[in-house]
Structure formats: C-alpha cells, structure tokens
Amino acid sequence: MFNYIIKRCLQAIPLLLGVSVIAFAIMHLAPGGPLSVYTLNPSITAQDIEKIKVILGLDQPVHIQYFKWAGGMFTGNWGTTFFGGRPVFDVIVERIPATFLLMGSGMGIAILIGMCIGMLGAFKRYSVFDYLATTGAMVALSFPTFWFGLMAIYIFSLKLGWFPSGGMFTLGGDEDILDLLRHLVLPTVVLSLVLVAQWSRYTRSSFLEVIHQDYIRTARSKGIKGSRILFRHALPNALAPLIALAGVQLPWLFSGALVTETIFGWPGMGRLFVDSLTMKEYPVLMGMVMFTAIAVILGNLAADLINAFLDPRIALE
Predict the structure, then answer these.
(1) Any idea which of 101-105, 197-201, 219-223 has the lowest mean pLDDT?
(2) Using CA of residue 136, residue 142, residue 146, residue 147, what is the dihedral sign?
(3) I need a labelling partner for 274 at 20 to 30 A (CA). Which of 18, 145, 237, 251 fits?
(4) 43 Cβ contact partners less than 8 Å away, ≥ 6 residues apart
(5) Among 96, 115, 104, residue whose Cα is nearest residue 243
(6) CB 109 within 8 A of CB 196
(7) Which pLDDT value is given to residue 317?
(8) Would the pLDDT of 125 be above 70?
(9) Looking at the domain 96-267, which fold is it?
C-alpha cells in the first residue's frame, strides 16, 4: 500500500503541472488585468501604471512570470497579493475553516439523507415512495444552485424571517455557536440539495445491484431479518461505489461552495475566489486553483484506500 501511495503522488506531479500551466494561461489571456483598476483613476498617469507594472512583475513575458510563480509555489512561497501585499498562503488559510464547515455540513447531510432515501427506494422498488424520490431527485438536479439559494433567501429570510439572509455571524452580535448555526442552515441546505439527489440515485442503483446477488437470496432463505440483511450483508458491499462517489464529488463541492458562498455572503474560499477574480488577483487565484487540485487528488486517493480497506478483493497496484 505504501508503494501505491508513493506511485499515486508521483503521478500527481505532472497533473498539477498541467493544471497550473492551463490556469495560468487562461488568467493571463482573459481581458483586463490587475492594472485595469488603476486605469479608471484619472489621477494616475501612464508612467505610474508602468511603475506599478514593474513592481508587480507584470512587465515580464508570461512564461517568465509562470516560471517565477511555479518556482515559488513548489518551494512553499505562494507569493503576495497585488492589492495589500499580504502573503497568499495566509489569505487562503484564513478562509479554509469557513469553507470546510460549510462543505462538511453539506456533505454530511447529503450522505445521511441521500443514503436513507436511496436504500428505501431500492428495497421498495417501484413503490409510491420510490417514484416520489425519483421525481424529487430529477427536480433538484434540474435547477441551478443559485436559483435554490435565491428562493431560500426570499422565502425563509425575507418572507418568514426564520433565518439570516447572509454572513457567518450577526453584525454587532455575540458571535456564539447558536448564531453561527442560524447562519449556517440556509447555505448548508442549498449546497446539500443537489448532493442529496445524487446520493439517493447512486445509493439506489448500488443497492439494487447488491440485493439481487446470490448471497442476499441465501440470507433471505435462511429467514434472516430484513434489517440484518441490509446492514450486515448489503451495506458493506454497496459502499464501494459510494465511497468512490465521495471522492469524485469534491470538485463539485468546491464549485457549489463558490456559488453558495457568493449568494449568502459566506466568508469562505468561494467568496474569496469571486472577489479575487473581480480584482484579477492572479496570485490568489492560482493559489486557490492549486489548493483545490491538491484536495481533489488527495480525496480520490483517500477514497481508493478506503475501498481497498473495506473490500479485500480490490488490489492496489
């Protein structure tokens, strides 16, 4: 297993290099740039803009800028922000707890509810509950996340006043755990809604494949109770594709958190990405792209290792 982990880490190096080259090129090919903010100020002359360009290193060719950035990134120096001069690593790290709280809550709810709906749908195939669950999942998958977010704010914040419309804490409040939970409810529900639909469908398919196996029929013929068959025999064998799904869903989680945090003003990495994109903060954007890529690679690696641990038939090569 140790050799497998080393092999996967070595395979990730060219992948990260490819991601960094493509992301760096796209950012520099996009119209505008960090200097566009200064061009809107009539008091700043062309000579001043040229000086700022030299200070930020934007006067050099793009490939030189990339090699300097990559050299710093892979040696632990993520650079500094164009506006404010703060270390990029510190700017990203201070936003990670808020994003992980939102993503963890959304993923936890999605796994719990989605798996319950999927298991019931599989064991009550073609029942009224199964049809309702399928219809609800299709509806949830058909609408974009930002629409759910806006509707949640309109109904539960503006009309009913049950939950805050945005932020992580109430301005001027005590910032206690209850206040945090009240602000967390709506963005978590919106983020997890699509995930619940996905998990319910995948769980249903996985359990339908398992419950028709010979060992399940044998267990039923022996008179074993349905709950014991579910948790003792069906669940462990149906988990493998679901664990793989958890690793694959990491990119969607980050993109969903980006939209959700923007709508609800949640001070996490998604909101930071949008703000940095508006200001053309290339160092922050590149740092977040690389952080997300590394998180996705590690998530898929963890999913493979967990699958191999749960199912001895899976050989890691």
Answers:
(1) 219-223
(2) negative
(3) 18
(4) none
(5) 115
(6) yes
(7) 60
(8) yes
(9) MetI-like fold (1.10.3720)
Nearest-10 crossing angle of helices 62-73, 282-310: 50
Q: Phi and psi for 117 in degrees, rounded to 5?
A: -65, -40
Per DSSP, the three-state class of 273 is helix
Q: Where are the domains of the chain?
A: 2-85, 96-267
**What DSSP state is assigned to residue 156?**
I
* Phi, psi torsion values for 45, nearest 5 degrees: -85, 170
Give mean pLDDT, residues 206-233: 72
DSSP 80: B
Q: What letter represents residue 36's amino acid?
A: S
Q: Is residue 87 helix, strand or coil?
A: strand
Find all residues with CB under 8 Å of 7, minimum gap 6, and list them.
Answer: none
For residues 133 and 127, give the distance between their C-alpha atoms in angstroms, rounded to a whole number: 10
Q: H helices within 88-229, ranges in order?
A: 88-93, 96-123, 128-142, 145-152, 177-211, 214-221, 226-228
Residues contacting 194, CB < 8 A, separation 6+ = 140, 141, 145, 256
Burial 30-39, CB ≥16 within 10 A → b, else e = eeebbbebee
pLDDT of residue 213: 73
The pLDDT of residue 61: 82
pLDDT band at 1 (very low <50, low <70, confident <90, very high): low
Distance CA 8, CA 307 (A): 15
Give the tens place of pLDDT for each residue, 12-51.
888 888 888 898 888 877 777 777 766 667 777 777 777 7
